[in-house]
């Protein structure tokens, strides 16, 4: 088992974890008298030593009653005494080396379904094994007296098991029938119930053939498939829900009497005055009334360059305040803000999309009428030929049992479980099985630019040959700021020995840069026209480091392609999928990227325009895969036939997307498509196998030659064949590319601010 | 025939015991963190399952 470093390849561009005590309080809940519980997501927990470190650190805080780490879900649950301020959980974890963020309990619906399924499997397994034991002695030729006794015992075991474990299928079948549809559960329920009913009749009549074993082991097999399916999806869902929440949870609102209260976003009214610290996200659409800052809007509009904010600027909900504190006045409630608008666009897009019917349900739609009709014809035929109602019913029920889609019910979920597992291991989370089927059908791929094709995070360009000392000074100053350029400077200095420069004072001038004082020397890091003394014309740099007005060094920044973007796009083209870029960013930023990748592009597209573009493609018969991360991509993600989002995407984008990939590399996209296509091929093979099995078994059943032994053997054999075929997806090694093959591509776009 | 009178109840009883034990361990939260349990055995002094209080 790879212990340490299993999380090391996850993409890291999350902003620093930031949660005030008020936010912790808001996200906690009362679990007992005077005790509150806070759930923290700690993605970097990976071994036993981490558990110990974290539990010790959290448990040592004043006011903490207990702390418990869950290694499987990478979460920590802390219970603390309510009353005082919440203990500084996130800060203490940062101190011991773990990045943590608050986890919303509301988002984590209690998962009763899984434990219900597991209990049903356990009961069905118990009943199936015991009935099978009794059946073996019957098949071996027990005397009539013993046989009757064993039939009765089997019936007594089967009845509660059927009622308990079969419920899951019966309820689902009933739901489908009530809405005048059929799904896979309808033939299953009919088969199981009829088999049980007829066996009970046989038992009462002291007949020789009872199918209790067939009915219960059928339930057992199908429940196993269903439970695996559910577990896989649940794991993916948990992994996605454990990602850091990017939207604001609440904000500090100034009340009429001057006091400040931390209110949840949903309670902020238009007209409220909000204090927005640097590093916080704008909770609702608002205008600035005091202060100046720069805002990171990349997640909202796709623009990669921070935009300045001054008094009077209108801020959209969800943008990130970078450099200076702001006082803002809400101009809309959360529902009417940009986020609410995106939600409405998403709903509209979803309604416009054709309802997708799962392949298993489509198969059942064809299959159920055929076998039910066959069973009825068999009954009618035998009744006419022999005139013996009992015999006709027995044979018709045997037909239903032998054709009961055990293999068919496993054919699809088993493949999808194996496929989802493979994707999970590559850091790709599939949120439901239907997504895999839709992904296999796509014939056009559309990328968003910022945050998807490019990380949307600036990097230092052309730093070679730069004065080491100047760079160290710049990095030391930059460590005091949240501005993306500062982050980039700190990042490049991270692998160098830490500088010993100590400043007397560092201050940030929003819109200009950083100023540091050290004795009589004043350093400035920021816009050239501000940092340099009069008359020194700014040259090729967007950020300059100066000492008392003299230039020490200049820095340029660029947005790079994401890891493996070029190979991923080339791979998609190779398998015959046209690729496009649709971005909300300026054309000058989009063109070089699209040019390098040699793909058509659309720039400066509004959010509604993106989903309209996709809807137009869909109506022209294309099946579109949308890959995007921003809030402005969410409607497009909802409109597309299938959708993917990186783990760094906005919350709404992550929940709208069918698949979420957690690693940095874009090779996730061709890989997911390849696995989805192979899964589709295996599903089709499995369905063909199930049909072939029926073609062989059906005539035997119609002729009335089926015994309980034959039914049990045939059903188990077909299930094993189907499961074995699904496992082939694991076996053959796919041609996997090493990630990072083309990290250092020459293509860049400059990130000069728009003036 | 007389053998059945104790053999079958014993067989069923054993099966039922296992079923009840499984149900109990499931309800007790012993499957909530399988990876963690594997690591904890190396680090922890006690081995009583802590009620994690989840749900």
Counting DSSP H or I runs of 4 or more residues, the number of helices of chain B is 2
Q: Residue ranges of chain B: pLDDT <50 for 5 or more in a row? A: none
Radius of gyration of chain B, in Å, reads 17 Å
Oligomer: heterodimer
Task: Tell me the fraction of residues in β-strands of chain B, as a range.
Answer: under 5%
Structural class of chain B: mainly alpha
Secondary structural class of chain A = alpha+beta
For the report, how would you describe the main beta sheet of chain A? 7 strands, mixed
Q: What general outline of chain B do the C-alpha atoms trace?
A: elongated
Shape of chain A: elongated
Mean pLDDT value of chain A: 81
Major beta-sheet overview of chain B: none
Question: Can you count the helices of chain A?
Answer: 23
Kindly list the characteristics that best describe this protein:
heterodimer, A: 755 residues, alpha+beta, 7-stranded mixed beta sheet, 7-stranded antiparallel beta sheet, 28 strands, 48% helix, B: 55 residues, 0% strand, elongated
């Amino acid at each position: 088992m790879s212990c340490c470093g299993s999380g090391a390849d996850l993409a890291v561009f999350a902003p620093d974890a930031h949660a005030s005590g008020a936010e912790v309080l808001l996200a906690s809940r009362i679990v007992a008298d005077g005790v509150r519980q806070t759930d923290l997501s700690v993605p970097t927990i990976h071994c036993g030593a981490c558990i110990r470190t974290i539990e010790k650190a959290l448990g040592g805080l004043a006011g903490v009653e207990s702390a418990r780490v869950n290694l499987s879900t990478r979460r920590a649950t802390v219970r603390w005494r309510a009353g005082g301020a919440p203990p500084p959980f996130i800060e203490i974890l940062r101190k011991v080396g773990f990045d943590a963020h608050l986890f919303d309990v509301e988002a984590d619906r209690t998962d009763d379904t899984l434990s219900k399924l597991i209990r049903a499997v356990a009961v069905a397994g118990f009943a199936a094994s015991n009935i099978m034991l009794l059946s073996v002695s019957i098949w071996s030729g027990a005397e009539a007296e013993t046989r009757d006794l064993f039939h009765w015992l089997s019936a007594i075991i089967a009845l509660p098991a059927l009622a308990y474990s079969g419920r899951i299928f019966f309820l689902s079948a009933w739901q489908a029938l009530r809405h005048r549809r059929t799904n896979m559960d309808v033939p299953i329920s009919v088969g199981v119930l009829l088999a049980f009913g007829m066996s009970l009749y046989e038992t009462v009549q002291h007949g020789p053939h009872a199918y209790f074993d067939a009915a219960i082991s059928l339930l057992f097999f199908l429940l196993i498939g269903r439970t695996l399916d559910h577990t896989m999806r649940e794991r993916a869902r948990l992994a996605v829900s454990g990602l850091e929440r990017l939207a604001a949870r609440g904000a500090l609102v100034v009340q009429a009497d001057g006091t400040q209260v931390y209110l949840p976003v949903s309670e902020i009214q238009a007209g409220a005055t909000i204090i927005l610290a640097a590093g916080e996200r704008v909770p609702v659409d608002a205008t600035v009334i005091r202060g100046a800052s720069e805002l990171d809007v990349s997640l909202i509009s796709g623009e990669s360059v921070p935009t300045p904010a001054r008094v009077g600027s209108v801020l959209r909900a969800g943008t990130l305040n970078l450099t200076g504190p702001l006082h803002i006045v809400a101009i809309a409630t959360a529902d009417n803000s940009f986020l609410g608008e995106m939600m409405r666009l998403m709903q509209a897009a979803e309604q416009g999309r054709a309802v997708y019917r799962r392949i298993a349900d489509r198969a059942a739609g064809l299959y159920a009428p055929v076998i039910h009709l066959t069973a009825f014809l068999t009954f009618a035929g035998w009744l006419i030929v022999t005139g013996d109602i009992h015999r006709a019913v027995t044979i018709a029920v045997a037909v239903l049992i032998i054709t009961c889609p055990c293999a068919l019910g496993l054919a699809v979920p088993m493949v999808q479980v194996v496929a989802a597992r493979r994707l999970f291991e590559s850091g790709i989370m599939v949120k439901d099985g239907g997504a895999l089927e839709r992904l296999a059908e796509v014939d056009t791929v559309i990328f968003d630019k910022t945050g998807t094709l490019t990380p949307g995070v600036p990097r230092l360009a052309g730093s070679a040959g730069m004065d080491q000392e100047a760079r160290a000074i710049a990095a030391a100053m930059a460590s005091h700021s949240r501005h993306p350029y500062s982050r980039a400077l700190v990042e490049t200095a991270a692998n160098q020995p830490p500088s010993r420069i100590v400043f007397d004072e560092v201050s940030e001038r929003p819109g200009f840069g950083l100023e540091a004082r050290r004795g009589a020397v004043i350093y400035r890091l920021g816009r050239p026209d501000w940092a340099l003394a009069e008359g020194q014309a700014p040259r090729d740099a967007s950020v300059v480091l100066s000492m008392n007005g003299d230039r020490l060094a200049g820095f340029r920044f660029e947005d790079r392609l994401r890891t493996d973007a070029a190979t991923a796009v080339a791979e998609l083209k190779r398998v015959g999928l046209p690729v496009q870029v649709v971005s909300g960013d300026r054309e000058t930023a989009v063109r070089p990227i699209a040019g390098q990748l040699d793909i058509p592009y659309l720039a400066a597209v509004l959010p509604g325009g993106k989903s309209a573009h996709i809807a137009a493609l869909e109506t022209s018969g294309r099946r579109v895969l949308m890959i995007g991360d921003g809030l402005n991509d969410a409607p497009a993600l909802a409109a597309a036939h299938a959708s993917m989002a990186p783990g760094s995407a906005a919350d709404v984008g992550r929940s709208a997307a069918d698949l979420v990939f957690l690693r940095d590399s874009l090779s996730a996209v061709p890989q997911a498509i390849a696995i989805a296509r192979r899964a589709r091929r295996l599903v089709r093979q499995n369905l063909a196998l199930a049909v072939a099995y029926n073609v062989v078994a059906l005539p035997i059943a119609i002729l009335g030659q089926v015994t309980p032994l034959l039914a049990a053997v045939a059903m188990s054999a077909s299930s094993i064949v189907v499961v074995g075929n699904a496992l082939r997806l694991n076996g053959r090694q796919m041609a996997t590319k090493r990630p990072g093959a083309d990290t250092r591509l020459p293509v860049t776009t400059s990130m000069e601010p728009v003036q | 025939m007389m053998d059945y009178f104790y053999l079958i109840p014993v067989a069923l009883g054993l099966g039922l015991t296992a079923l009840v034990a499984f149900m109990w361990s499931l309800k007790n939260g012993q499957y909530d963190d399988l990876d963690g349990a594997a690591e904890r055995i190396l680090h922890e002094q006690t081995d009583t399952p802590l009620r994690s209080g989840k749900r």
